[in-house]
Protein 1
Amino acid sequence: MIGNIYSKRGHDLEAILTATLQRATRLRPLLDERNADMVDALMAEAKANACRIAVVGQVKAGKSSLINALIRRPRFLPTDVNPWTSVVTKLHFGTAHEFGAVFQFFDEGDWDRLASGGRLLELSRRLGVTLDADTLGRQVRAMRESAELRLGKEFRKLLGRQHCFETASAEVLARYVCVGETFEGQELARSRGFVGRFADITKSADLYFDQAPFALPTVVIDTPGTNDPFLVRDQLSRESLDHTDACIVVLNAQQALSSSDLDLLRLLRGLQKEKLVVFVNRVDLLGRPIEEGQIVMRHVRDKLADEFPGHEIPIIIGSALQAERAIAAELGLADPMEQGTPGVARSAAGDLTDEARSLGPTGLEELSEVLSGLIVRGPAQRRLTRIQLELIELIAGVDLAARDEMALLDQRIAAAREDVATTIARQENAARALKQLEALAVSIGTDIREGFDAIQGMKDAGIARLDESLRDVVAEEAAAAREKLLQTSAKREQVVQFDTADLRLRLEGQFKSLYDELARQVQEAEIEMHARLLDRINPVLPDEALLARYSRVEPIDPSPSIAALGSTIALELDDQWRSWWRLWTNQKQRSRRLEELIVQEFQPLLDSLVASAAGALDDHLARVMAGLTNFSEELGGVLRRHKTHAVAQRGLGVAPSAAQIQTLQKRRAVLEDRVNFCVEAATDLDYMSRRVNS
């Protein structure tokens, strides 16, 4: 039963978050107002640090049923309408919001672009061909008539607005994101404002729930299908998949992944493969689920290995519907197979074989465990690691101040047993140390500026190499395509289409290789700079000071967005490509133009990839500079305390009384407890950050 195996997704990261917040709570009372506010901000950020789980899939693969099971809300997303959504729908768990559902409509500019042909027209123009006027006219008229049928002649007044609801429900959802097929007799229901009434103009949907069934704040992203004739929502779908912790790819066991799934495969090429998990659904509908299910798994594994060599993508086989039914039974709800979605035409439920009924595990438990593993290594964990490092930095400051004060107290207590000569010598040593520290502060500032400038220069040079290398790859492939086309028949009616899959795969490999190398170089330079700074400052730090043991060297994002590699380009529009092909009768001319077109079409993709790499490194270096600034401030604190100590040394000639010594010793005990807490908390936070990132 689902109830027996169910556990919250993200539980591993939840344990790390809880431990981090406990250390931050104990740290806060030890800080001044400015740093206490900083801890408050870090704690709020940690609590709101949402994991992002995207779900993509084939049409009729049971994506909605899987999401319903994953969020433990049977029948929430309609499962008997295909395709059920044309809108990026985000389900937020554990994020406070004044409304339960917010639907954003396209604005005037969005709609005008949609009605004029959208990105399809843009790509066609880049090919130098014209969209068929009759076809475009029919599609635009159908879209306008659909919107007017559902919303009336005044539908344009809704553009750019939002509709908000106190709670999210399946009935509300169906009106804004559910498209479905046009069944006879359903037009009247639509015109009265039920299923799909606002779907034509809805740009995005955000739904808000309490945190369960996730251990952490989580966003589940339901992406629309590939039925977007003008590619208007194409970019919205790809953008929604950026910076996810995990992406579930839902396949239909009855028609598993094949070369005909071009849109899905293209989408996957724009995702980080280490974030993917494949769920082969509807195994219960196979004739012999157990035996045939294994055959399907092998097929999918082989297909993924061919498409994405070198990547081991987890594959899980199961039944989302059976998981949804089990959860419904556990919660005392109606069987999802017995009732359709309100306001939506029901579809007949197919009979299951005896073997399917006795399958047992639905795959949901295994999927939950894989998701937890991906989450604990994903962007949410990296954000938490950054927070942990900032807390260690604050802890090191508290530790340093406590150790400095302890040193002064020890000197005052020792003064009770000093002779005059010893006191004079100690005062002279303190004065010399102060002069050294003042000179050190100036030189450290210079070292920081020069070191950071060197790292920035290294980054800029590396990005330039990345840009040049990617363009070389495209130029090589374009030249090879030209030569290959020159060697083929020049028949005008024989259309040869350039397959972009190999080029996209090669670009991804080159991008990852060069980015990883550049990130490694930047990280090593950063570590070396921190080491040099600590070597300079160590002589003036108290023994065992945490500032010398823990330097803030944050891991660089290992997976900047490659979403551009999943975008559609003009070369991949079948009808428009045939029109382009027939523009040329001379094979040499056509081959040369093909080479130019490949370079031209991949230019925006390369620009996006380079910008993604530069952005990830720039964000990292901005945090590096913030850390170095804090380092300088800590050094300034050391300098101020040493000045205070130097002044105090002049008054230590008079030995403290017994009562004063007792007061000093009590204060020292408090400081020693503080140092012990700092050591323990910094060690724990450092261990947690290193354990996950190792």
Note: Residues 419-654 form one domain.
Protein 2
Amino acid sequence: MTGRSKDTRAKPYSSNWMDSCYQETLLPGAPWHTLSSEICEALADYLHRQMTQPQRAFILARILGDAFMVRYFPDTLAEMTSNPPDISAEEQKKLTMEASTWLKAQLLKAAKKVGAVADDELISEDMKTFRTHTSDIFYSGLERELYHQEQQTIDEMKQEAIQRKNRASPEALRQSALGTVSATRQAASPAMSVTRSSSASTIRSVKTDRLKEIMYNLDVVPQHPAMTSKSIDLIAESVVKLLERSPGRFKVVAKRLHGRLLPRSLRTYIWTECLYQSEKDRLVRGANVERILRERFGKTVARNVGELRIKRATQSPIHRIIENSTLELYGTVPALATYRNQSMMKDAVKALNILYTYDRTYEPYLILWLFPLQLAFSSNAVTSGAEYVYELAMYLDILNSSLFTQWSNVHAVSDMVIHLLLINDKEFHDHLMSICQLNVQFKTKDFLLEQVQKERQEALKMLKKPPEQESSDPQQLLADPRMYIRKWIGEGFVSVLDTTSVMFVWDQLFLQGWDSTVLQDFTLVIMLLLRDRFLVCNDHMSMRQVFLDEPCKLLLMDIQTAWLKLHQNVSYPDLAACNRVRPTASPLQTSVTTPLPS
């Protein structure tokens, strides 16, 4: 095919080991050549009629290349070479686009005819041989690359051990002591220069900062083993390379990743694709979605900076409110507290200020929504520089406006969860409803009661149920378990789960396009895993404590197992057994410090 450089054909994946595997499949005698010949012959059969039209034949010949034409249509090629048709440049461009689209359809038709389409149930023996051969080459290449990485890691560990040993040697300690004495004498000398004083001060500052970093782990982002394994990252990067080469395989890969925690590089790619995909339907087909969204967002922010009469977008009129809310949440929410460092909080504050400058949007729960995005796109902080916080703000805007379900639907989901519990686990349902109105303590001013009632009526309409009569007693409405479910969903589970579990939940949401069914199923999974703890509750306050404090204690593996079993139609009481951390006594002491749902 024309228009592709030789280097691109030889190294299509820009990865040494993957490109080596690709080239190995093209060696003489490889099964691909047999399969390729069969596809080409079937394609040639569909092209005979087109080759009788001079202009069409000329365009097809340029696309297919001389090798194909010499083998299947030598006379047509000779005719085109001696007497090329007179076609203007503009007409050539138009005909080339039409011919390319038509040719792709015919190529797929030819591949299906010879049984060479991987997704079809009926594939030929030659296709099976080719797939087995390619799979063997790929896995052998992957094992070699993993071995090389392992050896590299071992060598690095050996070098590090040697350096530690050298630092701890008697000679090194003696030299360090002599250096400290010399620095002390110089500090005591009245003739010491300003330069030396500055240098010594810098050294002491560096040592102090290093000590603080070791003691308090300040400004160091914790690394989770599931996110940093070199072997997992290598496989993830390979999948990303394949998807970049064949974007049409995205749905297949997403289906295979169901129920899995995504590695960092694969997460970044999949989340980005899902965010942009949600905007593609609103744009002209074939448009560069990323470029259009970035330009639109940047221009709007720049214009609004002038309208708001502020110096920069990262310091909006409500920047103090955003700063205080961010500090509070990073100090109280378990998932965020793990990453409580200056860099994370600064980026969050800047991004939220930019979003407010963009369209005057701000709610405290957006701090929670932004947190998973910060973790997923943390690698962009180095490559994007100052634009990183603008990217975060843009992604958060897309999530808020295009992906996250409507708030009325959040109420509908909470109603459906309670309804499913009634059908499938009546004991659990009846217990929750019997204790939720006992010993209720809350401040009604902390809740947007009118908004809650309005959204509840809209949810009932969505579920095709008759509207309820608005309760004159706010206690009855706000004490309902649905309010806590609404809090879970509305905050993306970030406020109640630990960091790794949050990322797992969000991985599944992005893999399935933020379908509200995923939110519903995860709510059921978490509630059922906490079933034993709920059953020992005896009033509203103890139930509230389980809703707000217990989910973060669940193990990721238990959530994964229950999530998969839920889709295998395992009974609800049996799903509770997936929780390996069982209550040994009543956990029901009312905590006045636990934040109320909002």
Note: Residues 278-403 form one domain.
Protein 3
Amino acid sequence: MSSNSDDDVGAIVDFVGLRSCLDDSTITEDLDTAVSLEESPFSRYRIGQFAQGVIDFSSQYGSDYSISYTAPNITGRPTKYPLYGDFPETYAMRVYGDWWDKAPSAMLEIQPQNIPKIPAQDFIVVHFEDYTVPDKIVIFETFNPGAIIRIWAYTIIKTWVCLWEATEKASNSLPHEARSFLPTIKNIGLPTRIIRLEFNHSDLNYFTEIDGILLYGQNVSIRNLHQIVDQYYNRGKSGTILSKLQSIQFRPDFRDDYKNQLQDFISKDLNKFVTSLPNDNEITIDNTKAEKQLDLNDMPFEIMLKVCSYLDLQSLFRMSLVCKTLYAVTTHPLLYRELNLKPFWHLGSNELLCTLAKRATLLRKLDLSWCGLYNSISPTEFKKFIQQCGDNLTHLVLNSCKFLNASCIETIGIVCDNLKELSLRNCSTDPPLLNFSCLANLKNLERLDLFQTVIEMDLLLTMLESNRKLKHLNLAFCGVNVSMDVVAEQIATYNKQLISLDMWKSHYLSAVGLQALSNCHDLEEVDFGWCLREASLGDSLQNFIKSCPKLKKLFLATARGITDSDVRNIANICPNLEQLDLMGVLGIPKDRYYELLVKCSKLQLLDLSFCDNIDEFEVKQWSQIFKVNIKCSHVPMEYTN
């Protein structure tokens, strides 16, 4: 980062509203084959359009008060492609590689059997101006390509459909050049104008950056969307038996005496359908008595329960439809002590929550991250679920849950008083949207994650005072109204057992706050990136690292007050250091970095991007000699001219 279904649905389309010319965000071309207006619901024009706006995203590198590396940069025409490099005008996310998973603050997955082979770590949802039936998507990647693992479309029938999915993670061997990623997507035959990209960064060498999204497809008139929806549902009503009845032109013989309709149907018309079945479908009954064999009813319930405990949630639901015995096993509350709906975010609904509420009476851990977009889960149903199943919750993860409102937060604060871990990442960017006051009732928290979620400072201070067993605290991007110096002093007073602290891109942390944090001797991980903005830190950094001998991760990106002496102290005082980020720190001689590598023998990651006095040749040599992953990104040439 710079320090700066394949079948088409029939309907009739009205061309009256078709524009004769298109703006700069749209590309048009005639279809190769003319389409009869009476046979197709779609325009005979194929258009290409760039993303018009961002609906939702899980994280971004830039802040809401900046235009650098933010989600809106993915909209419109690409501004940098086909150039390759680290450009602030693109969209980038917070993490790369597996370094955050190796850090002391890493969270264990809830219900890990639900996690797919390639899990999504981030997402972004964008919308386009016009409805199209998509046939091609182009994604312009300008830095470290390869993180995209799934592409989804939200169709006019209000369902998410996966257009493309990666079969394996991206390789580090991808060339260092911009690419226009053009995967072969599924033909869904339904209009959409909402696309979702999912990312996995675990095998990437550094941050990935996206410069734009181009969606191609047949244009659909908005006036005919309801006709397409009606015809889609009518087609869906013809199942196997109904299709067979239609093929033999079956018509029930109804009479005026409706009380005898069923009897007439069975005696006169049903035989037509039965006798028309092929002979190979006839069922033969063997009346010979077979030797009795063991079946499911003979297996101990406990063993079946143990076997089912390894199944993911979707498999449990499928097995429950097999027979009464398996239904009794697969709906047992012991199988629902942990629930993770994040991998099934596209299936999350009020009906699903209602069903799970009957089964999860022993619920301890719950993850509803990414669920509820477009009101698929309502605040009312969420509150009902928490009131029925939340009394014994110890872990609650609600990252990027847009159904949350003040009433939901109030319910959590009142019902879930046994919570040990609470994650509300990216849930609110505006204080009036959520009232966190009831969270002051929580007294047993060991982890609190408020990344990219605005919270009032008085409430935060109250929560810190009330939760003296707190071990992991994430306040990155928590808002401009929270002074990190005041928070640091509160932590030093009430939360001395803290293990990890993330203040990345928060505000007002100075030497005073850094000195206060020296009282937290158990700290193993801190991120002060883009947070320490004072020109001089005095002895505060030296005192801090001396007082925290367990430090394994120290991120100081763009810290203005870092001096040659500070880097020397890190080398001499932090023998357990595994990850060090000095991105954008200037004025440090290269000998000091060499000293770091020599003395910090456990070091695995060193970020020297945008640092001066070093070059790529030296970095490659050091990486080979010390077996350390050294990052050394530089400002693109256009910014140096």
Note: Residues 5-39 have pLDDT under 50 and may be disordered.
Protein 4
Amino acid sequence: MVHLSLSTLLFVLPAITTIVLASPARLDVDHQAQLSNAERFSQGLKTPAKPAKKFLEKKKKRAAHGSRTQTAKRATTSGVTIPVGTTTLFGGQAYVNKGLVGFGTLAADAKDSLGETIGGLGSAMEFVPGSWARSGTSNLYTGTLITQPDRGHNTDTTTDYVVRQQYLDITLTPNYDTATQTFEQGRKSVSMTYSKSLLYSDAAGVPVSGLDALGVRAATADSPALPIASATYDHLSLDAEGLVVNADGTFYVSDEYGPYIYHFSATGSLLSTIAPPAAVLPMKDGALSFTSDAFPDTGRAPNQGFEGLTASPDGSKLWAVAQSGMVQDGGADQDNKYTRIFGWDLTTSAPTLVEEYVFLLPVTNGKSKALATSDFRWLNSDSTSTTFILLSRDGKGMGNDDSESKHKDFLLISTAGATNIANTVYSTTVTPVAPGGVLVPGVTAITPTDFIDIIDDSELARFGLQNGGAFDETLISGKWESSALASCLDPLYPNDYFLLSLSDNDFITSNGFEAGAVYSDAYGKEVNTQILVWRITLPNNPGTIA
């Protein structure tokens, strides 16, 4: 995806039926209620903590006052009309959710040009630079997505899957009608067709593997110590998650084994590696331990590395988010509410970590269990702060044993008012920033604000989808881990964008083929890849676009 700086445009707030006020510089009522009295005191909150509101109750309330309760619409240049939308005021700017407008599927047993199962596409995606287009002034859009599966089919064990990109040609015909459709009607709004694959290799041309990282390749003058499959199988092991595509065709990939950020050439060959600070590296008994099968003593928790990756539009800064907290801060334990966001300056001779923040994760209902991050995307910045849209979810839905999801949301977050802990003891050492789940005094965390409810029942029903019902193809996927932005190319609404998200189906099919072997997943059902598309309005300078 090309990183473009858009001119700041005058934004006129449309008529709305719902306004949500939010300040990223302070905790909202719900998040204040999540904090212990010790945390509240350390952040200057003097009133006693109130019992946390149940997240489920908030969901029901939001559904009752959701994005489709309004009837006012406005015309577009394509001749169709769109909802005015629901506006969230965040950081003094307006963000508008105009609703779900597209849905499509790709068969779980689809194969790529290597004859292997196409799966896990939702781990990350970007548009091929310059591919996004609108057919005149019609309501038809086309483009090519670069999708990045993670480590292959691994519901039982990992395989020697060659990590890769899968290119998909997509067609979008946005549907703004409020009427309920059947599933077959709904999924016609987005079509996805496999195009080609790009395989990853290390600097020596050795294929990159999805196998668990049981070994360590020694550091060199040009590279930190790297995760490999084993001492006898010296293949770089990569559990690919985030993806940023640069204007020159090279790209960055974040992973969960390291967790590292890898810089690849346009042809998929490893160029260089960015190592995280000491607080993040997985250490066991004083040595690096990259495996995903056991907890280290400190650093990232297993399978909880750099889940999301994004960049500023000029390519000067690269950002990563850890899926959950560091082990010294409670790790992947759902009682641990704090993870971290990292920012590297790419204008220096070598990438330099210049920003690091603690992020307060959203929580579930009355049990207040933390919900991990899945992806995020740069939206705008000024001289003092940066704003992102972040995807957070539970894992319930198709592909899981529980069909009823209670949390799948796009959130707005900002570094405004949060404490930069880069180059402090909380970053350069394994000193915990939240010992016992309590944030240390003097450190203020980033807090999220709700923006889009992915599992809004009325929105899903418009496309023949459901949440909490039968385990069939109409059930919303459990795992959503990616996002992309594409301009609506609508001169009447120059700040309108399509927000896309792909599901990660974990390669679950009864008709699979990978790494030279046939497989049939024990789940017993076909888990198709799903894609959802929303139309949103961003205040200005929305960053990376197709």
Note: The chain has a mean pLDDT of 87.
